[in-house]
Amino acid sequence: MTRPLVALGASDPMVVLRGLEAALAGGPALLPVAEGAPALPSPAPAHVAQRVALVVETSGSTGTGKRVALSADALLAGAAAADAALGGAGRWVLALPTHYIAGINVLTRSITSGTTPVVVPPGHFDARALAEAVDRLDVGPEAPRRYTSLVPVQLARVLDDPVATAAATRFDAVLVGGQATPAPLRRRALDAGVRVVTTYGASETSGGCVYDGTPFGTVRTALVDGALELAGPMLAEGYLDDPERTARTFTERDGHRWYRTGDAATTGADGRLQVLGRLDDVIVSGGEKVPLGAVERLVRELPGQDAAVVTRRASGEWGEVPVVVTERALDLDTVRAHVGGALGRAARPADVLVVDALPVLASGKPDRRAVRTIADPDGAPTA
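and the corresponding structure tokens:
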């Protein structure tokens, strides 16, 4: 049994909302697409398996393109567990693109709560526009709470604006995910009275399923040789027309189906999950392994460096070296001392590059391929 797959441009969130409502009710499966974005190499099929309600295209910030197939059951299970973790259903402000899973989640949770999200105008994020959206966010007895979902760079812009910050304190929760949230940014938000909840997940898990380091609902976590795996009812069916990738990424064990995230993780002293970064985002510098994600977290602890990105550069002497790319001035000796004191000499950045604007994807995440090209134009991959 199959059903049609309908592609809809994601520039109008209300069109995507109606398409998602139909898909969750058993109508045609939905493929939201970013208008004007490069297409994946192979065209999407006209039909998908009956269980598939939503297909999310993602090129990722570093990897190759894929189409993640999700069932209505997975999406609704994730939404229900998230609402329970947050304290109940609510009305949402939508500030993320609806061709990404985080934006789609806002729509899904609006549908399940019987509400309509207030939309921040698409395009370049404006913190004042978020504040205006909060003013339009009337709540009712069916969903008396207020929520929004942001990426860290959006949260930083909100906190830079006193009016937007005051508006953000009116949310019962501000979900922040898509990438690691710098600890100083989180502290800054909490000190300002913004109830931040850091999230971890992927399109393959119907979005965030770990809140503040704790898996919600029936989500399970496992560390296999330091690599994070997740299990639960919110897992994707797999990758559309890519059985080999599906078999590599999803596995059966102990009576559960597991998603291999590709991230390194550990459990802190408080029992909370700590994601350390991509397993493949490690360089060898002078014969020593250096996890770039760990370097980036340390750099982002420095004042004004919430959005800094650490990438790699080829080095004839060391093999590869870390490089910081940032929008704000940063003294190289300061960052080298800060990173070296925690991770050792090999992890010290070799350079700091200050740019007018960091390249980002439509989701708000850093475009790491473009950042690497800035740092190493001769050595960065072109495809």
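(Above: one complete record from the training split.) The chain has two domains: 2-273, 281-375.
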